[in-house]
Amino acid sequence: MSNLHLLAGQAVRQALESGRTVATAESLTAGMVSAVLADTPGASGMLQGGVIAYQNSVKESVLRVPADLLASAGSVDPDVACAMAAGARAVLAADVGISTTGVAGPDAHDGKPVGRVYVGVATAAGTAAFEYSFTGSRPDIRGAACAAALERLLEALSG
Question: At what angle do helices 138-158 and 3-18 cross, to 10 degrees?
Answer without folding.
Answer: 20
